[in-house]
Design goal:
The complex is a heterodimer.
Chain A: H1 15-20, H2 39-50, E1 54-59, E2 64-66, E3 72-73, E4 78-79, E5 82-86, E6 89-100, E7 106-118, E8 125-129, E9 143-148, E10 161-166
Antiparallel strand pairs in A: 1-2, 1-5, 3-4, 6-7, 6-9, 7-8, 9-10
Chain B: E1 4-11, H1 22-36, E2 46-50, H2 62-66, E3 77-78, H3 86-99, E4 105-113, H4 141-156, H5 160-173, H6 188-193, E5 196-199, E6 201-202, E7 211-220, H7 221-227, E8 232-241, H8 255-268, H9 273-276, E9 279-281, H10 287-296, H11 305-310, H12 327-330, H13 335-351, E10 365-372, E11 377-384
Helix pairs in contact in B: 3-13, 5-10
Classes of the chains: A mainly beta, B alpha/beta.
Chain lengths: 167, 386
């Protein structure tokens, strides 16, 4: 982009100016770490992932099976009533192929990502990765199934499902 | 409730990287906004200031950090926050202050300095995802827009070309905006040929990370009539939050934008938005979002916004100019400041002061809208000159 002139205030800074030391920068690398308590609903959900199962919570008032589970129904604003196992399969609601990681570094092979409507859950479901499929074969409505990590390496994490693959 | 008007506005340049600090940028915009209507800090009764995630700056308490440059001392100060929706949430809060009689003049200041975060400001967005379910997947913010864009395209049979026209229009409109750092003359083919980031989103479908600031002055009727003969009234405000469980909602249609719009229309007495609203600044961080939002704002039928775009309705000289400023795609996207820039654009357009960007036909009613959080908040302001 060519450098534009403007009547408005503000001083665009070029990388060269920073490298030359014309403009000073203070650096502060952070090293904070967090340990999140997973809570009642997600704690159980993650434990069940370790067992190779997906679990939701049922609200008897609105008759929804909530995945991800919550101990309260945010619509009815009352406690949910019961745990309910759902399938480890589902339908692709939407998908994409990412050529960047979270920090915008490029990847050669695209990361395949989707929103998956979990069978047995009321609406929608989870964002997760896709595998064992070519990007060009993906389509909305495709049936997929969880590819679980081996039991001995599962940690009670969303990554206990390595990805979803075509059923 | 008292009538509330916008009486002044100011902007900095939008830049990939600014030499100025956040408070310095805030000062440059705020001081211009006051000067534009002949007011000084002594006249200001309250301050609404806004900025998006603190993670960009690495400075928590960003409200207090920015406050010296925003006139924020010795008076009521608020920092409303709704991610990308902040730019229009601030004037909504300022409207509370003035309409309620809490203050006669509210200074509204938005600042964003994204360039601080390394290696790339996009990385800071990982902190907005669900910490247990989503962050372990290593999501990039563009993922969710690519997912939403694909769902929108497939639901209504919309093509990449349909969507690329928004980038072409807005980047061209931006050539006339003095704040821009990303305006250019491009073609639909240029958009399609640009680097694929997260399919179906290409580089030219995305607004940039930017540094910059915007400010407006909002005032009671008494003050407004004293300082200007062209007050621009806030006719209606609305905002709405959808479920935080974003994977549980309809990605093809922004229902929360519709709810926000209906709230603002009711207050403004808008019963036929397509006839009554002359000019629109919907939030356009991604090309498809302009279309998505036009539909949520009830300014196009579901799935039909691409058609009115292709037909030229949304061009500056069309029947309903959309993003005449150039928007986020054409001017830049210092997040909160970009949303407030849209309010400033409607202010200048309705006053006939938009210079090379001025739309023909002396528009009477305009709308600015922003959108954000994890893509589930809509914020709307309807403005008019009668």
């Amino acid at each position: 982009m060519r450098e534009r002139t403007s009547p408005l205030p503000g001083t665009p800074l070029s990388d060269a100016a920073v490298h030359r030391g014309d403009a000073l920068t203070q650096q502060w690398p952070t090293s904070l770490r967090y340990a999140w308590d997973t809570g009642v609903a997600m704690g159980r959900f993650l434990r069940e992932l370790k067992n190779g199962r997906i679990i939701g919570r049922r609200c008897e008032r609105c008759q929804r099976v909530l995945v991800p589970p919550r101990m309260f129904c945010e619509r009815c604003f009352r406690p949910t009533d019961a745990w309910q196992y759902v399938e480890d399969s589902g339908t692709i609601n939407t998908y994409s192929e990412s050529y960047i990681r979270w920090d915008v570094s490029r990847v050669a092979e695209p990361i395949l990502v989707a929103v998956i409507e979990i069978d047995g859950a009321s609406s929608g479901g989870l964002m997760h990765l896709l595998g064992e499929v070519k990007p060009e074969d993906l389509r909305i409505g495709m049936k997929v199934k969880a590819a679980w990590a081996l039991p001995e390496v599962r940690q009670g994490s969303i990554l206990d499902i390595r990805y979803f693959k075509p059923l | 409730m008292r009538k509330v008007a916008v009486v002044g506005a100011g902007l900095t340049r939008f830049m990939r990287r600014a030499q100025e600090t956040g408070p310095e940028l805030a000062w440059l915009a705020a001081s211009q906004a006051l000067e534009s209507c002949g007011l000084t800090l002594k006249d200001v009764g309250s301050v609404a200031l806004g900025s998006a995630p603190d993670a960009f700056d690495g400075v928590h308490m960003k409200g207090e950090y920015l406050s010296p440059g925003a006139g924020g001392w010795g008076r009521p100060v608020i920092r409303p926050y709704a991610g990308g929706g902040t730019g229009v949430l601030m004037p909504i809060h300022a409207w509370f202050h003035v309409a309620s009689g809490i203050s006669d003049v509210c200074l509204v200041v938005a600042e964003e300095k994204m360039s601080t975060c390394h290696p790339h400001p996009q990385g800071a967005f990982i902190t907005i995802f669900d910490n247990i379910l989503e962050r372990p997947l290593g999501p990039n913010l563009i993922w969710i827009f690519a997912l939403e864009m694909r769902r929108y395209m497939e639901t209504y049979g919309i093509t990449k070309e349909d969507i690329a026209r928004v980038s072409v229009k807005n980047k061209r409109n931006g050539l006339d905006h003095p704040s821009t750092h990303v305006a250019q003359e491009i073609t639909v083919q240029d958009v399609l040929d640009s680097e694929v980031m997260v399919a179906p989103v290409n580089r030219l479908d995305i607004s940039p990370a930017s540094d910059g600031a915007a400010a407006i002055v909002m005032a009671s009727e008494d003050v407004a009539r004293r300082v200007t003969d062209k007050p621009v009234w806030i006719k209606g405000v609305g905002w709405n939050l959808d479920t935080a469980y974003w994977t549980n909602r309809d990605l093809a249609y922004p229902a929360y934008v519709e709810r926000a719009a209906r709230m603002a229309y009711k207050m403004a007495g808008i019963t036929e938005p397509r006839k009554q609203i002359n000019i629109v600044e919907p939030y356009d961080p991604f090309s498809y979002k302009e279309l998505h939002h036009l539909e949520g704002l009830l300014l196009a039928d579901k799935g039909e916004a691409p058609k009115i775009t292709a037909d030229g309705v949304t061009q500056r000289n069309g029947n309903m100019p959309v993003c005449p400023s150039g928007g986020l795609l054409g001017v830049g996207n210092p997040i909160a400041a970009a949303g407030l820039m849209k309010v400033a654009e409607i202010f200048w357009q309705l006053r006939g002061e938009a210079g090379a960007r001025q739309v023909p036909g002396q528009p009477k009613i305009g709308l600015a809208q922003a959108w954000g959080d994890l893509m589930q908040v809509g914020t709307v302001a309807v403005m008019g000159i009668d």
